[in-house]
Write a structure and sequence with these properties.
The protein has 302 residues and is an all-alpha fold. It has 12 helices and no strands. It is flat.
Length: 302
Amino acid sequence: MLILIVTLTFSCIALAVMSLYWFVARPTSVVTARLETIDPSLALVENSPVTTMAERVAEPMNRIVPLSAIEAAKLQKQLLQAGYASHEAAMAFRAIQLTLLLAFPILTVTICFVLNLSLRTFVVWAAIGAAVGFYLPRYVLRKIIAGRQQRIRWALADAMDLLVIAVEAGLGLNAALNRVGAELGKTHHDLHHELELVNLEIRVGRAREEALRNLAERTGVDDVRSFVALLIQADRYGSSIAKAVRVFADSLRTQRRQRAEQASQKAALKLLIPLTGFLFPVIILIILAPAALNLIDVFGGL
């Protein structure tokens, strides 16, 4: 077992040194040198150290556990909904998975060796560490998605009010979306970023309907999907966008109030467990402790 620990330690140190070398002192390739002679910015984009490092770390995991086309598309969609629109995000995610997949079992095996546990315990804890290292990034990603969707959901009502004001002031839909996105920059950064992407897509020549549908796909929020469907339908049939958005904003405000009431009703039930487990025992101890001490003194004197 000592030989196994020494081997694992030596492997970790060797991998760390090699990673540091490839990250800092990696020799320049011929392609990189030619790109630098043509345009230095091209070399920085095509040969980013972070991208290269993520590709090298994620490559072994892609060979061991390859992603199918459906899983890759699903992962890319989840990263988009979490706010990571870069093409390097999937490689970085796989690199984090591989790092934790190796780090957690090594850490648990080292702890078991220090505690001098049995071989069966070594295997069990190593398997648990590998499972935690593999599923922990996905759990964190789901939490990030849920938090971002919640922020977009709460910001949408304010965006609807601003959109109604902009449209009724005489702005077109594209200009109104641009104005609303600019106004939300300081208060609701997530929705501001998404509306900026919609405006950029429209500027480069993409159809407004397609840009709005992309907005719904990137966010994954049901209220945003309903809003996009409302805008597309109003634009297609020539109805008044201001009236449609005003009605939708009123219903959204009602839904927001109902969600707040539902959350307040759930709060009492959620507080029951910590109150029962932590607060009530302390109160009982404070109330009964003097009487218990008096009883101990009385019966102890007998």
